[in-house]
Amino acid sequence: MRSASQHSAEAQPGTKPAGGLRERKKARTRTAIQAHAVRLFREQGFAATTVEQVAEAAEVSPSTVFRYFATKEDLVTTDLVDPVIFAAFEEQPPELSLVRAWRGALLGSFARLTDAEVDTERGRGVLALTVPELWAASLGNITRVIETMIEMSARRVGREPSDPLVRHTVGAMFGVLLVAGFDWIKNPELDIVALTDEAFDRLETGMVL
Fold first, then answer.
1. Could you give the residue ranges of the DSSP H alpha helices within 98-163?
2. For the chain, which residues make up each domain, given as ranges?
3. The model's pTM
4. Sign (positive/negative) of CA torsion 148, 153, 154, 156?
5. How confident is the model at residue 2 (pLDDT cuts 50, 70, 90)?
6. How many CB atoms neighbour CB 35 within 10 A?
């Protein structure tokens, strides 16, 4: 995963592409390639689907696919929503607590996704949980996301990333989000925005049973 600043310079799902026509076209192409890839992988199986088939569905060349996604696995494991969330976090009012800042960033970013983008995100999750090689690749991404959240959180509260309180707070947030995400992936009738909101409600009240 690239840094938040690198990501925020590119258009992502749930945002209006920045820059001119060329940048908007690149953003649409990237999103379309991933959407077609996820659809084909779910319909035909990850191993049985070729990059050439993905390229044909997206109406681009295989070389264009690899220009946006370095490997076949990256077509699934690359998260185009994370940078939107990171950018939204940086824009949260300074008076908000760390947990409320992440809550606002996540809920706002999820709420702006189109139905098609939500379907792609859920499809990515289904594939990551059911295809062994994708699960292994996703674990590395999860680690990088957690470390990015820790670094951004530490800057916001004026502490070091090694501070146990920062790390444990981010760990608690990521844990409830991960479980909410698993529930959503397993049950498409659930609303990811509502699940995330409920997860943060429980987190902020101490999750007393």
1. 98-111, 115-130, 132-157
2. 4-204
3. 0.84
4. positive
5. very low
6. 21
Task: Scan for tokens 């749930």, then name that residue.
Answer: 14
- Token pair recorded at residue 67: 């220009």
Tokens of 23: 């940048």
* Average pLDDT score, the chain: 90
Query: Which tokens hold the place of 185?
Result: 């992936």
- Half-sphere exposure at residue 121, Cβ-oriented, CA atoms within 13 angstroms: 22
Token couple for 168: 């444990």
Eight-class DSSP state of 14: T
Alpha-carbon gap, residue 138 to 119, rounded angstroms: 18
CA angle (130 as vertex; 103, 47 as ends), nearest 5: 125
Question: What single-letter amino acid sits at 99?
Answer: V
Q: Treating both helix axes as pointing N-terminal to C-terminal, what angle do 21-44 and 115-130 enclose, rounded to 10 degrees? A: 50
User: What is the pLDDT at residue 109?
Assistant: 95
**DSSP helix, strand, coil percent of the chain (3-state; round to 5):** 70, 0, 30
Instruction: Give the number of residues written for the chain.
Output: 209
Tens of pLDDT, residues 115-153: 999 999 999 999 999 999 999 888 888 999 999 999 999
Q: The tokens 């009240």 sit on which residue?
A: 205
Tell which CATH architecture fits domain 4-204. Orthogonal Bundle (1.10)
